[in-house]
Design goal:
By secondary structure, the protein is an alpha/beta fold. Helix content is 28%, strand content 22%. The longest helix has 14 residues, at 293-306.
Amino acid sequence: MIRKAVVPVAGLGTRMLPLTRSVPKEMLPLGRKPAIHRVVDELAAAGIEQILFVTSSRKTAIEAYFVPGGRESGPPRDRNGQGIEEGDGPPGDRSRQDAEDQTDPPTLDYAFVRQDVPAGNGDAVRLGKTFAGSDPFVVAWGDAVIRSATEGSVVRRMMETHATARAACTIAVEYVPEDKVSRYGIVKPRYESDTAFPIDDIVEKPAAETAPSRYAVSARYICAAGIFTALEETPRGRNGELWLADAIRNLLRVGGPVWCVPLDADSRRYDIGTPLTYWEAFADYALEDETEGTSFRELLRGRLKDS
């Protein structure tokens, strides 16, 4: 089983201004919990025990939320303030409450490292090298939630595929409408399957007419330790930015097997990136709240009727 996850949360959130002037977008509520809490619930349900947040000096609210008092900047540190050495193994078994029922975040080992200069999502993953050591690890963007009928099922399916295929990288994907292809990284399947399939290429935000498929990268990856070599060998682009998709293309060029796991019918991705996508996510979680969901639904019906 894979026990470690790197969760980048250092993004500026400029499309969500002025909300994100003082509140990280990852801390915006989805129903009764911040979005990042729901990401961590998902990872904990999949068996993750150690999480490294790649954060920034603007995101101390995230550090304080998961470890009261937060952490100072510097090398990755665990919840007890101890430095994390390369190759550290996962902790022993620990009890968990059901993630959806608890009000506090899951009891995991949380660590933090700062990325104060935005330099691309590949640079954020690169900062997890010491934390990951030689172990495979999950990468989960902190501003995207995958909600499933069974919590954590997408990541667990990815773990199974990653092990069975002996993959260098495994990516969650979703089939998107043609008019949304240009918003995402798009993969080129070697063949298609409802469960898992290998790819020959990945293209960042292609035009619909040139896209190799309509399978879009869906905010979750599993990477073997070789990703760090691929990142080191990937040229940085404009403004010194390093992108994970470019490193994955390098893996493919040298023959590293990259597999994809499609989201199933019971799973849905929510992005906390623009006001509209955030409102949609909040509304769906609020409507399904066990205590107030019915009342909220009636309130919305009344508003729509009056409009």
